[in-house]
Specification:
By secondary structure, the protein is of the alpha/beta class. The chain contains 16 helices and 14 strands. The protein has one domain: Glycosidases (TIM Barrel). The relative contact order is 0.14. Bound molecules: 6-O-phosphono-beta-D-glucopyranose. 6-O-phosphono-beta-D-glucopyranose is lined by residues 18, 21, 129, 173-174, 232, 304, 325, 368, 372, 415, 422-425, 430.
Length: 469
């Protein structure tokens, strides 16, 4: 490996979580209902407003009450950073109030202070796969422009409250989910079940405006804040070297890159404008929107990476589908997959890093990566998750090579350092953690925490700044 392939001093090693997937306490201290609270089968499937179905998100892993013990374990692993999200509904329970809920703000004061006690840098996602349910019911979700101001007000409240303690922020988790799962991403419901592309793209425009206004507001409050975007990276390979497959791969990538293009460069690329025109989609824009986008470009590119995708023009290959975090994908014959069908591709991470850095020349932050697997708690209290260690080692090796390629990589927060409820399938059977939580998908178990084999392994990775994998 080249001498240049070394992680920089101060590299932000850690883990990442989302409020709705671990906090529980879904009605405590004035919290309002969120879209996740009505999504018992995973926040990407259809909501169930009856509230009668069992919903694992309601209890999570009870982090709301166990955060001190959990953060102590992260500190023991030597975390330099911890990515958490703030539940919008703890701060503005319905989303459209004039004043925030002090008890919600106070909870995150306590969490942030606990992290700082151990010199762990808090990295905050302002909105991670949840929004106040009331904004869906009363305003129809993000297709309504009013949400831009509600979000701006919420983001400002957070910046004002925490700017002295939190430097790293992200505006929307995996903002491109709005294209693939419109309820999760934008709070959109389609009565006849048919996707309405007009509403989807209108909502996306509003998300872009909200993100840009938040970036601007954050910088005005404290110019030192680093505010990033967050995309689910979905790098696509052509199935064959057929030129048509290559072009299809490029087009498929644009469904992802259009988000970071707008958030990073501050304007819609021509390929998006042409696509909208071809599809007869007219996004309502007001005078001054261009200006807002230009003034609110992000400081860094945050992204998640779990797998790569394949594009093909051959209907035969299309038949061979496999699972994925936001989409089903075409099977890549060269890759193995997790039990959930997510194709394991460490080299793809190096490629993504280079692709994004070549395109934007902004610092990159890998804010999610990891392997969802079924873990077994042995009688002696051990969990031998060698498969997880292998997965992470292979990905970190490729990150290191990307640094050697010249990519400015500032951190790595692997997904779910402590087991939590999955986003796509709302189960606890699929685990990502270094810390095992004794709780199953029916919500049964002692909720006790156990260190997995990967706990000590990751601790050593951090202690050696990635030199010993
Ligand atoms: C990402 C999300 O897409 O993937 C997380 O940002 C999510 O919220 C993670 O948990 C893993 O997906 P899943 O469905 O296995 O939980």
């Amino acid at each position: 490996m080249s001498q240049l392939a070394r992680f920089p001093e101060g590299f932000l090693w850690g883990g990442a979580v989302a409020a709705n997937q671990l906090e529980g306490a879904y009605q405590e201290d004035g919290k309002g209902l969120s879209t996740a609270d009505v999504s018992p089968n995973g926040i990407m499937s259809s909501p169930d407003f009856s509230m009668e179905t069992f919903n694992l998100y309601h209890e999570g892993i009870d982090f709301y009450h166990t955060y001190k013990e959990d953060i102590a374990l992260f500190a023991e692993m030597g975390f330099k950073a911890f990515r958490l999200s703030i539940a919008w509904t703890r701060i503005y329970p319905n989303g459209d109030e004039q004043t925030p809920n002090e008890k919600g703000l106070a909870f995150y004061d306590r969490v942030i202070d606990e992290l700082l006690k151990y010199d762990i840098e808090p990295v905050v996602t302002i909105s991670h796969y949840e929004m106040p349910l009331e904004l869906v019911k009363k305003y129809g979700g993000w297709k309504n422009r009013k949400l831009v101001a509600f979000y701006e007000c919420y983001a400002k409240t957070l910046f004002e409250r925490y700017h002295k303690k939190v430097t790293y922020w992200m505006t929307f988790n995996e903002i491109n989910v709005s294209l693939h799962a419109p309820f999760t991403g934008s709070g959109l419901l389609f009565e006849d079940g048919e996707r309405n592309e007009q509403d989807i793209y209108q909502s996306i425009h509003h998300l872009f405006l909200a993100s840009a206004l938040a970036v601007k507001a954050g910088h005005a409050i404290n110019p030192n804040l680093q505010i990033g975007c967050m995309i689910a990276s979905m790098i696509t390979y052509p199935y064959t070297s057929k030129p048509e497959d290559m072009f299809k791969a490029l087009q498929q990538d644009r469904h992802t890159l259009m988000f970071s293009d707008v958030q990073s460069r501050g304007y819609y690329p021509t390929y998006v404008k042409n696509y909208l025109e071809e599809q007869n989609i007219t996004v309502q824009m007001e005078d001054g929107d261009d200006h807002i986008l230009r003034e609110g470009t992000v400081d860094y590119i945050g992204f998640s990476y779990y797998m790569s995708f394949v594009a093909t023009t051959d209907p035969e290959h299309l038949k061979d589908q496999t699972g994925g975090n936001l989409l089903l994908g075409v099977k890549n014959p060269y890759l193995k997959a997790t039990e959930w069908g997510w194709q394991i591709d460490p080299v793809g991470l190096r490629t993504v890093c280079n692709q994004l850095y070549d395109r934007y020349q902004k610092p990159l932050f890998i804010v999610e990566n990891g392997m969802g697997a079924v873990d077994k708690l042995e009688d002696d209290g051990l969990i031998n998750d060698d498969y997880r260690i292998d997965y992470l080692r292979a990905h970190i090796e490729q990150m290191k090579l990307a640094v050697g390629d010249g990519v400015d990589l500032i951190g790595y927060t692997s997904w779910g350092p402590i087991d939590l409820v999955s986003a796509s399938t709302a189960e606890l059977k699929k685990r990502y953690g270094y810390i095992y939580v004794d709780r199953d998908s029916e919500g049964k178990g002692s909720n006790k925490r156990y260190k997995k084999k990967s706990f000590d392994w990751y601790k050593n990775v951090i202690a050696t700044n990635g030199e010993v994998l």
